[in-house]
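To assess whether the prediction recovers the assembly geometry, we first specified each molecular entity separately, as shown.
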Amino acid sequence: QKEVEQNSGPLSVPEGAIASLNCTYSDRGSQSFFWYRQYSGKSPELIMSIYSNGDKEDGRFTAQLNKASQYVSLLIRDSQPSDSATYLCAVNGGTALIFGKGTTLSVSS
Amino acid sequence: GAVVSQHPSRVICKSGTSVKIECRSLDFQATTMFWYRQFPKKSLMLMATSNEGSKATYEQGVEKDKFLINHASLTLSTLTVTSAHPEDSSFYICSASPPGLEGNEQFFGPGTRLTVL
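The predicted structure of the complete assembly is given in tokenized form:
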């Protein structure tokens, strides 16, 4: 069965620090990877997608993909209290995405 | 990004009644939509894949007779919770993927919070 694993956290970082969120996946054939942010009581919001090995940067967010290690990460630079949320890693499992259980990030001011 | 809407955003009903939730893709056509359920402080759980013009595909453990899915057009899928009970109280979220995207990115609706009394 295809699986996506994340540390549930909570991950606590001070404001201005770098938050590092990690994800591993079981299906070596996966080609598409996504990070979603979910605020409490709200639905998930797509923040990053990555398809090739290496880094992809978008503002304060950097997604990193290592297909050989089956590992995806999300770095958030200059973390802000508004970044406090649950971050879901998702992997394309065919028609549907396979989601991890999410990592809760708490940024303290 | 693509826009997916849901209606209603919140519903409270009595035990034994049925509730219909609508999911619409506003600026694209979606042959496939997905329905998720999320209990408080729990992870997102895929319930079923809604296919336009054909039967939905349900995940293991999801009762197809209780959660009726209809995908009658390329922009609308509905989920009907039949004979709802308090244990069905949850956050129901749909998603869809616009055609032509590289990696099958999914965009979520805002969700429907169901409370069954």
